[in-house]
Specification:
Layout lengths: L4 E14 L3 E20 L4 E6 L12 H12 L6 E8 L9 H16 L8 H12 L5 H6 L2 E7 L2 E7 L6 E6 L6 H6 L7 H18 L6 H4 L14 H12 L4 E3 L6 E3 L5 H9 L3 E6 L6 E7 L4
Parallel strand pairs: 3-4
Antiparallel strand pairs: 1-2, 1-11, 2-4, 2-5, 5-6, 7-9, 7-10, 8-9
Helix pairs in contact: 1-2, 1-3, 2-3
Amino acid sequence: MRLANDSVRVRVPATTANLGPGYDSLGMALDMHDEISARAVVGKTHVRVSGQGEGQVAEGEDNLVVQALRVALEAAGAPQVGLELECVNTIPHGRGLGSSASAIVAGMALARAFLAEPEALDDKKILQLATELEGHPDNVAPAIFGGGTVSWLEGETAQAAPLQIADNLVCTCFIPGFRLSTAKARRVLPKMVPHADAAFQAGRAALLVRALAGREELLFAGTEERLHQDYREKVMPASVGLVRWLRAEGYPAVISGAGPTVLVLGTVSPGVRRQGRAGRWDVHELAVDREGVKIVGSASSHHS
């Protein structure tokens, strides 16, 4: 498999997972993006990062985008090359907005853009490779496909299907200044939960699928959940407290992914936005990204 381009650029969205009751299965892409350019070079790999993660993420082979790109090139049987990457990042790291999934999907899309035969890295192949690298498909699926997705594993095979999302859905994100690792957020979850809670969760997840498709009046009930948010209060009390306050005000609020960002499926009043900002949360209204990762530029070369 040869490389047909030596300069490529992709755009990848942020994602939110769980959406309340859809734990480890439901996800949605949001209109906040990282844009990454890659150039094939002779010599050492170097990564320049501006925006989120600047001065904090690896600038060589250990960079997650580079690692994902190399995994994808290897899977396609393509040659490895030196790389110059430029990452312009707006997705905050460690906030529950899928930054690692977006980095992985971006790297694999860059690999696809390099190839003479990009179908060797189709969406299904990237879903599988990205899931193996990330560990679960709930963020990588919407980053690839855009919109809403339900994803699952059949054995070790990653699967995803699109969710119908109302055309007018806008989300409000309350993003804190502090970070929380997914591993830390997972460690506080119990190994067993009451059967009644599991049954409640299954019902609410099914209801949420219907609510997202255009039944706005069902979003509040459809975002109730019992399997993860309350258990995580000890590692993100401010976030869980904000969810409770917003829900008391009538908003369908949830923890985004493993947190600590709080997501409202809808808009909030100017007063609530002001109070959020006064509490030192960055408040963003974000549309649903309907495209997923996208190749936005490439230049030809003669690699063989």
